[in-house]
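Homework help board

Subject: predicted structure for assignment chain

Our instructor gave us this sequence and asked us to write out the predicted structure in token form, then describe one feature. I got the tokens but I'm not sure how to describe them. Can anyone check?
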Amino acid sequence: MKIAVAGTGYVGLSLAVLLSQKNEVMALDVIQEKVDLINKGKSPIKDKEIEDFLENKDLNLKATLNHKEAFKGAKYIIICTPTNYDDVENYFDTSSVEDVIQKVVEMKIDTTIVIKSTIPVGFVEKVKKKYNFENIMFSPEFLREGKALYDNLYPSRIIVGEKSESAREFANLLKEGALKEEIPTKFMSSTEAEAVKLFSNTYLALRVAYFNELDTYAEIKHLDAKDIIDGVCLDPRIGNYYNNPSFGYGGYCLPKDSKQLLANYEGVPQDLIKAVVKANKTRKRYITQTIMDKDPDTVGIYRLTMKKDSDNFRQSAIQGIIERLKSEEYNVVIYEPTAKTEEFLGCKIIKDFKDFASKSDVILANRFEDELAEVKNKVYTRDLYMKD
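My token output:
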């Protein structure tokens, strides 16, 4: 069948590649450069599996800038456009999702819209009424940045926000493209599925915040944080995963999803959700003060991506630290070889590592890489396990 995918970020492109193994897929984007790369079998994002599949697999995939070309004749139109949380207005900006829905409605075509973009609880029911279009459902994604296609090939679970034949067919499309054979699958209303997404990511944010606060305690009290974490995580109910301290949680999902869940809690008693959001700010303030206490002339930021094998800067935790250092009038330089600009947040970007290291009195590294070994005496990191 023909399937359209609107948006070619990590979520959209990984789904387009997955589904184009056995279906005709049209990928829609608004950036000419991304469309051209995909049509040449090149990935516009860093993801090993996506790069491999585009180059070496026989995919029925075409990218386009024309939404009518993409949507015409498509049985499913999957929306994977970015949504961002607006801290000032205290709501999710879902305009990109609604723009796609509006275009589909105007075309008056018989299709089913599947939203993969993260949205507030109750969004699907709202837009069904607003656009007088019933065939809309939400199916949350649970993908890691840089491992998006891998996580679609070996999904932890598939959740579809509808208990219908169409929902089962969509779930089967995902299963047909996957390599994992037994995939837990759950059908529910779109409102419950929206809640699953936000609660899942807020729990992950909570876990990051928990081990970061453990690490803060250990560092201030001059204790071995790794020994404490190892001992805590030997309890099988806690588990030895997602426990490596960092400068805070960041990226595409955790900051905005935890804030959106907090907004959805309006009128509902809670303390924990608010604390998860607040704890991330506290951690970044603590890291910043620790660096300031070292009294450096120049602070070096080792990578904006914050995560190995990633090219995404979006909402990385280090940005809040850079802004705090700049507000205190510290000189900050950044080593980011993937950057396409010469400055970021008013800081000079240096692409030569040796030049960067020589200019930095202290180097902040969210994750320790081998090239830092020769200047280890300058490096400040809380990476205890040398892993993401």
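Reply (TA_rk): Your tokens look well-formed. For the description, you could write something like this. The chain has two domains: 2-186, 197-380. That's the kind of observation they're looking for.
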